[in-house]
Amino acid sequence: SKNNNDNPISLPLLDSKNFNITTSKSIQKISPASKNTSFHHDKKSVLTSSLSSSSSSSSSMKKFKKGKGLINDIISNSGMLENYTRNYKKTSAGSKSDISKIRYDTIDEEELDLDSKEDTISVYIRIRPFNDNEVKKGYEKAVFCEEDKRTIKLNCPGGKQRSMMYHSICDSYYSQEQMFEELNIKSLLDSALIGHHITLFAFGQTGSGKTYTINGLLTHPEYYGIMPRSFEYIYDKINSQNERKYSIKATYFEIYNEKIKDLLNPTNTSLPVRWCRNRGFYVESLVEQNCNKFEDCLDLLKLGNSNKSIGKHLLNDYSSRSHCILTLNIYSASKSNKSKLSIRQGKIHFVDLAGNEKVKESQTTGDSLVETMSINKSLLALGNCISALSDPKKREGHIPYRDSKLTKILSDSLSGKGLTIMISCISPSNHDIYETLKTLRYSSRAKHIKYKSIIKLNPEEEVNYIYIYIHIKII
Ligand code: ADP
Ligand code: MG
User: Fold this and answer.
1) CB 209 less than 6 A from any atom of ligand 1
2) Count of C-beta atoms within a 10 Å radius of residue 61
3) In terms of residue numbers, what domain contains 140?
4) With 70 as the cut, is the pLDDT of residue 281 above it?
5) Would you list the DSSP string of 238-260?
6) How far apart are CA 472 and CA 249, in angstroms?
7) In terms of domains, do 211 and 87 share one?
8) Over the stretch 53-71, which tens digit does the pLDDT of each residue have?
9) From the alpha carbon of 170, which atom of ligand 1 is closest?
């Protein structure tokens, strides 16, 4: 296995000090309608029954059973069993359109009551600067950011002007650091650290700056994109607190022509997407790599990127058709026995989408997306899901998540169970104005998608997390 690069006996939880995200107030009363019926069972019966139910379906559980004594030791040593005995309550945390307003250390119960609050996906626009070629060709600037930093003005063909509003706009002069601040990525990461599921996706035509925004140049810290900056922030935060123990594991894969290739194990080129009740949709057999420090994440990112490379003549076509998803699974357990919280799994998906220039909007309905040149089922399906989710009439009906691998994997994020932001990258040039308009329209639709973010905490799942944790360590 590729996963066992640290000591299998000690839990891979990172020690840390002075963490000031306090979530003890974020406990919400569990609703009577909740499915978590095993709530009031005593700890051991729940633990054993859940473990044995998963064992019947999994051959790998045999290994798990063999090590049961060891596992119980690990669980109780780490305080997990302690945490497990407490009365679990379902928690949820608040969401606001301006994520920066969330202060986890001061937040009170009322603010966290999501039954009365909903919000929408945050949509940000990033305008890239002109490149040398465009300057040489004399293309003109057709995209302008207004002073409020929220309104974008376009000079459209025929002398028409259009204005559209978004959560925030990063103008072309923004450095990577300014962009990272402007998009409030740190608040999102804080949420992931307390158990939320975060998705951050870059959208736009090929050459509009998606990869630059998400990856950046990994050789120069100044030009680091969102991923390496996020890695830095997360480990700084974890290492400066001592409330919770953390363990971070990462996966990195791409979807190219509806085939999933594991970028950490490139011999796996066609992995299936499966569904189960506790996990939702997931990619089977992905390498999940332990990342104990920033450098581990950076190395993993570089390794994955190098596994993307294919013949140069195909590079453009390739990068414009593949979706790359790096996921950090952030497992954490409270160190303090006083805390009401136990094990959680936060998650962050960083998604660098394929270029959207090959998907054309239907002239007849204006609603569905029709592909023209080549088949990019995932992007097409994403457009259809966004359309359906953003329409109040259709939202309650059937959402076609199952139409593509990408939408299956992102279904939780899109359906509003997590915090999602979309960064739409656009070119400043009049030459690209049609593509820019298309990107902006698509993004405007996404703005209407509502979400209620919750931290999932139910006993069965927790047992599974413990199981996943330890199982990974033992094999
Ligand atoms: P995409 O991933 O959308 O196809 P890229 O991120 O590869 O586009 O960007 C295309 C080119 O433009 C790259 O050479 C990249 O370095 C450059 N670029 C994109 N955005 C910026 C920016 N904000 N500042 C400087 N260069 C940029
Ligand atoms: Mg790219």
Assistant:
1) yes
2) 16
3) 119-451
4) yes
5) HHT--SEEEEEEEEEEEEETTEE
6) 11
7) no
8) 333 333 333 333 333 333 3
9) 23
